[in-house]
Amino acid sequence: MSNSDYFKIDEVDDISSDRIMDPYMAMDLEFTFGVMDSAENFERFKKQYDLIDDRRFKNMITDSTTVEMSSLGMAHWFDDYLITFKDQFTLDNFKVNVSQVLQSPYDYATKLVGQQLMVAIVEGLPNVGHDDYLKTKSGMADRSLKKVFRVSGVGTVGFNFSDEDVAFKVAETLFKKASVKLNEMDPKMKLKPEMLFDYPSHVITYELNDDGDYQAVMPIRRLTPIKDPSEIKSWK
Question: Can you give the pTM of this predicted structure?
């Protein structure tokens, strides 16, 4: 994609100075939920955010609901991962969905990919990317894909896709979803939608090298918002 109604697209070799929205801040905005790879990292984030004075984010992690994925019966692939929800109701819904996957008649590998997709959805993956996300998971596992495109959108972890057009559509959808949410929250939380102008998204290309690893290649596409977030009324 070379043109977008939502982004100015630049090719760059360095994004180290770009502002990245912290996933836990995004969690409070309901763009995503937190997934941590160890109890130690969770405690580090919890301590950091408990020190925040801003009432909008005060005790955000302490008041949330965090469980080990193993306690939900999820695959050993998730190891010591923890998953954080804003409330018990959302966790209960996730438990039901996990149970349905685990009780399905499919083999272990298929169930694992299903669980990975569930976690990706919790982390913010929109519908437009679901099918290609599954295809890419499988293709990267057996190294049949020579190139993938990783999207880092507003307040999310990165998602990999085999189709570059899907990657850009996901980035646009994440931006629209964040805009709609901030428009809804502005009167109560005083978080202006215009803040999104400060957070570019990125599409990074990875190619399979001779060692069987996916390695980032330049340039990186930086997607800088140009569409006024306050004018976006729907993300679907």
Answer: 0.87
